[in-house]
Recover the amino acids of this structure.
């Protein structure tokens, strides 16, 4: 009991301290200003836009890949050494330090594929990083669907894919969503791999807009644009010696914590709801 | 009529096979990721070890890869990693275990229902946030107690890292303890043991394999942790096992190099891959050890 209280109180003290330091800097301008040499005018515009775009790219790659892999392992995979190899790999990848993914991305995406230090490289890196989370969540969600559902579907003449498409995926979607949110919450706070691929810490412009005035109205130039993200911005401000920048770091950290807590909280709430409503 | 139906059925079978193949390829992505990591790390490290003999990499006591008089002694960085991890674990393991025992054996049901998601929430806090705490909250606090402490130290980074790891350790240990069947506890009570004796002498040993793998996960977390150390432990390579000194770890070194502007293909660029390979080998050994421990000590009821 005492140990639990010590733990909880430490966390409360730490977060309160940060909230108090950063609260004074939170204002509308903080969200709409670029970083600046003057602490009082610096903001997180390029950071949160960068974070959002990187997250979109990450989700675009991680969700289809992770769900497909989860479905394969649960519904299709035969029991043989290939399946074992894949499963051992996923367990192992979950334990690889995130900075090693950064090195992979630096060698592979940035230099061998020539993607440069771009939003696309970062999105791919984080997608690989959260892939195990998405796969495991998908598998757990699918595993909780009773066998009778599948048998019923087959009895009506459905093929395996039709069973997956019309029964397995819809019934497991809430569980999968929970896993995806947790994965994204992890990705948004990851700093090390993105620093390793060489994201810049001082960006005073936005990537090209994804929507243009001329046809075809959609532009993907932003994928190859340099960028910065929230945690890197915070790292940059924290490692400066001036105290004024530390207040900025606290404010950025406050926003980041609220974002990740909100995402994780949503996921936990979703799972709680799911457990209560699920009665086969 | 008949041949048309046959053709339709064949198309359906082909579609099923194609879909299965696509799903299989998606599952293989994880294997490609591992292969990619090993390929990149080994490839760059091989050209690194053509310049630097592996013996001096392991035994040299200086790490100055960017100086004219370059030395590449990984021991220097490893000492920082080991020291900070030792500090972190000496906090996370006792506290995490006690919290797990309390939650699993003593806590009322409602508290447990609240505490478990709370621990998960804490596990999701970005590590850069903890780095901020280490540098701007814990270090000044420690300096009040021990004024000679420098602005960057392995101690404050390690303490905060330990706090960060507590949720992981306690969450997994608690799962392991909860999986111990009730009959074991009842047997212990029937022998006249108190609740505490039951928890420490029956439940913990019975759940040992799970608890041990929680510790090992904690170790590999600590070794791979980057941002807390990059922010709060300084980036000066320093061969020391004294937590009161600043020192760079393997991960902090990689960040430092990545923040600078090293030309692709230079020896400085290759060092981070050699450092990364060391890190990868270390965590791989941890993961395998955890796997073996779980297998050997798993008791089935």
């Amino acid at each position: 009991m005492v140990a639990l209280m010590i733990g909880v109180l430490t966390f409360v003290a730490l977060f309160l301290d940060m909230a108090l330091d950063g609260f004074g800097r939170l204002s509308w301008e903080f969200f709409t200003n670029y970083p600046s040499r003057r602490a009082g005018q610096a903001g997180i515009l390029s950071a949160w836009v960068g974070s959002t775009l990187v997250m979109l790219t990450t989700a675009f790659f991680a969700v289809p890949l992770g769900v497909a892999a989860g479905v394969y392992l649960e519904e299709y995979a035969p029991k043989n050494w290939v399946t074992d190899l894949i499963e051992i790999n996923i367990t192992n990848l979950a334990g690889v330090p995130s900075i090693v993914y950064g090195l992979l991305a630096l060698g592979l995406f940035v230099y061998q594929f020539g993607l440069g230090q771009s939003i696309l490289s970062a999105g791919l890196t984080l997608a690989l990083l959260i892939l195990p989370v998405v796969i495991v969540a998908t598998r757990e969600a699918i595993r909780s669907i009773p066998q009778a559902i599948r048998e019923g579907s087959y009895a009506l003449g459905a093929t395996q894919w039709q069973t997956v498409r019309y029964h397995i995926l819809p019934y497991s979607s809430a569980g999968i969503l929970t896993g995806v949110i947790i994965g994204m919450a992890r990705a948004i706070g990851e700093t090390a791999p993105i620093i390793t691929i060489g994201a810049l810490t001082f960006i005073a412009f936005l990537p090209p807009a994804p929507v243009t005035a001329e046809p075809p109205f959609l532009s993907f130039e932003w994928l190859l644009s340099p960028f910065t993200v929230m945690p890197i911005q915070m790292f940059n401000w924290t490692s400066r010696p001036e105290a004024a920048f530390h207040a900025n770091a606290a404010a950025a950290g406050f926003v980041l914590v609220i974002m990740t807590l909100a995402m994780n909280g949503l996921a936990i709430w979703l799972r709680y709801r799911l457990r209560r409503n699920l009665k086969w | 009529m008949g041949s048309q139906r046959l053709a339709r059925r064949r198309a359906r079978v082909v579609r099923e096979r194609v879909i299965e193949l696509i799903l299989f390829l998606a599952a293989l992505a994880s294997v490609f990721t591992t292969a990619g990591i090993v390929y990149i790390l080994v490839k760059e490290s091989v050209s690194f070890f053509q310049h630097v003999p592996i013996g001096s990499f392991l035994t040299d006591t200086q790490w100055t890869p960017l100086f004219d008089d370059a030395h590449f002694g990984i021991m220097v960085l490893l000492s920082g990693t080991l020291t900070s991890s030792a500090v972190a674990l000496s906090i996370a393991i006792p506290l995490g275990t006690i919290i797990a025992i309390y939650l699993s054996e003593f806590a009322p049901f409602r508290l447990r229902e609240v505490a478990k998601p709370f621990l998960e929430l804490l596990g999701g806090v970005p590590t850069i946030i903890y780095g901020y705490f280490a540098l701007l909250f814990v270090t000044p606090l420690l300096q009040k107690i021990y004024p000679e402490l420098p602005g960057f130290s392995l101690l404050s980074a390690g303490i905060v890292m330990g706090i960060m790891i507590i949720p992981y350790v306690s969450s997994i240990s608690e799962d392991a303890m909860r999986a111990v069947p009730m009959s074991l506890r009842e047997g212990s009570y029937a022998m006249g043991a108190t609740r505490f004796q039951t928890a420490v002498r029956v439940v913990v040993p019975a759940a040992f394999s799970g608890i041990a793998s929680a510790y090992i996960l904690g170790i590999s977390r600590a070794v791979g942790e980057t941002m807390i150390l990059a922010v709060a432990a300084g980036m000066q390579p320093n061969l020391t096992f004294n937590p009161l000194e600043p020192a760079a770890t393997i991960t902090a070194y990689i960040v430092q190099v990545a923040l600078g502007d090293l030309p692709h293909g230079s020896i400085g660029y290759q060092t981070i891959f050699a450092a990364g390979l060391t890190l990868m080998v270390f965590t791989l050994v941890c993961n395998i050890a955890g796997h073996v421990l779980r297998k050997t000590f798993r008791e089935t009821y």
In short: The radius of gyration of chain B is 25 Å. Chain B has two domains: 2-51, 74-297.
